[in-house]
Specification:
Layout: H1 5-19, H2 24-36, H3 38-61, H4 64-69, H5 71-94, H6 100-109, H7 111-123, H8 127-139, H9 147-175, H10 182-209
Helix pairs in contact: 1-9, 2-3, 2-9, 2-10, 3-7, 3-8, 3-9, 5-7, 5-10
């Protein structure tokens, strides 16, 4: 391993600052945590983490040509993510009057949907790899890194936002303890459903405009 501890800490700090910038993943995590608690947020966060591990490896491998050849495949993945977010949002709005306990049972049954949405929203966005291709050379000399170095960089790229997303999910999930009236539950679940649909719209508009 050729990387120094200082290099890794500096890179981790940059990732943390980046995490603090709200984006579609933030919105999706908050929406799932508000409606379903931490049980709703962690599958999504786990799927995002896997994507955050894959794209840095792809960037360091220099597979931009491969990505361009498979642009249609990546577009399909992004559209699948849109469908999943739309479905989760619509289902939440349809069942907006359900209590958090009943929604939690639905969330456990829908683990695959949350995980898939988190993974596809990252994997279906080749801009994530272009981001890493632009950022990583500023922190590391990619011409001399070893396979161990590459794995460590990807692990840090995965771990920092994962921890942030999980903490965010826990904090938002705990805050829903004040839900005690049917009207308030229905309003929050409806808002959460709209937020999930909004995430899908952001992804869809990004694909159309790119």
């Amino acid at each position: 391993m050729t990387l120094s501890l200082y290099d890794m800490w500096l890179y981790a700090l940059a990732l943390f600052v980046l995490f603090l910038t709200p984006g579609p993943v933030w919105v999706a995590i908050i929406a799932r945590a508000v409606s379903n608690g931490f049980h709703g947020a962690w599958p999504l966060a786990t799927g995002v983490a896997l994507g955050d591990f894959i794209w840095p490896l792809a960037a360091m491998a220099g597979v931009s040509v491969l990505v361009s050849l498979n642009a249609n495949f990546l577009d399909i993945l992004a559209l699948i993510a849109v469908v999943i977010f739309f479905t989760m949002g619509i289902m939440l709005i349809r069942h907006a009057d359900r209590t958090p306990e009943r929604l939690s049972r639905l969330t456990r049954a829908g683990f695959l949907a949350g995980f898939s949405a988190g993974l596809l929203v990252i994997i279906g966005n080749p801009k994530a790899m272009l981001f890493y291709m632009g950022v990583l050379p500023g922190f590391f000399d990619l011409s001399i890194i070893t396979m161990t170095d590459a794995l460590m960089i990807s692990l840090v790229s995965m771990a920092v936002p994962l921890m942030g997303n999980l903490v965010l999910g826990v904090m938002v999930g705990k805050s829903r303890g004040w839900l005690h009236t049917p009207g308030r539950i229905k309003r929050l679940n409806t808002i959460s459903g709209i937020m999930l649909i909004g995430v899908g719209m952001v992804i869809l508009i990004g694909k159309i405009s790119s």
